[in-house]
Amino acid sequence: MFVAAETGSRFARERSKYDPAAWMAAPRHLFGGHNALTACVDRTMFMRALVLHGATPAYDMSPEEMALLLSPEDGEADEIVVEPMGRAEDGSAPGPLLFPWPAALFTATCVEQEAGGALHVFFATLASDESQVREQLRHRLGGRISYIADVEKGFDPSQPVAASLLSEAMVYLVEQIASEPTSTLAAGFNVLVEHRFGA
To answer: What does pTM read for this prediction?
Structure first.
């Protein structure tokens, strides 16, 4: 149900010519030749579908390509980025634990008026403290946003910026990470949604 909602939401947002119901019913390489209707009852396949629609421009990809997307190499989409944070000092790929413990999910939100309208930002990441979150924001969006953003430990889906920018499926995913920040699913997780509203 969540995958179907996210698929429909994405296709509507992108004004895609493709039918979301047809996408759900057709075999996909991502699911090993199965369709989303049957495959996404499995947690791993469910998360693959959410990442595909939330972080890539593709409608299908191989499991190997998905693994590369979630590897320590940078990857980003137009609006949402889900990416690991880097490599270990010896150059090897990091394991599931990427942060000094105790790590937790932090969220940052920002609303800023601009000459041409307004900027709304939602950011979620694993970190040990607020300073790590602001440093990540500074790297991604610059010093001003890093300084003025509201940073909180945990995730409140009713927060106005989160409620306006996140789909139900993405809310569910962030809630899962917040509840289990030490799981393998959470390793390297971060999400950035940036939306500009014209005057």
So the answer is: 0.52
Please provide the DSSP assignment of 23-64 as one string: HHHS--GGGTT--HHHHTTSHHHHHHHHHHHHH-S-S---HH
Nearest to 174 by CA among 67, 7, 31, 54: 54
Closest residue by Cα to residue 2 from 49, 69, 56, 58: 49
pLDDT in tens, 107-160: 999 998 767 778 899 999 988 889 889 998 888 888 888 889 999 999 999 999
What sections of 83-148 are H helices per DSSP?
Answer: 130-141, 143-148
The lowest-confidence range among 10-14, 31-35, 52-56 is 52-56
Into how many domains does the chain fold? 2
The answer to whether the CB of 125 falls within 8 A of the CB of 194 is: no
Nearest to 112, CA basis, from 154, 146, 78, 155: 146
Please name which of 161, 158, 94 lies closest in space to residue 126, comparing C-alpha atoms.
94
| 27 close to 34: Cβ distance less than 8 angstroms | yes
Residue ending a domain, among 69, 91, 116, is 69
The torsion of the CA quartet 147, 152, 157, 158, rounded to 10 degrees, works out to -80
Pair 61, 91 in one domain:
no
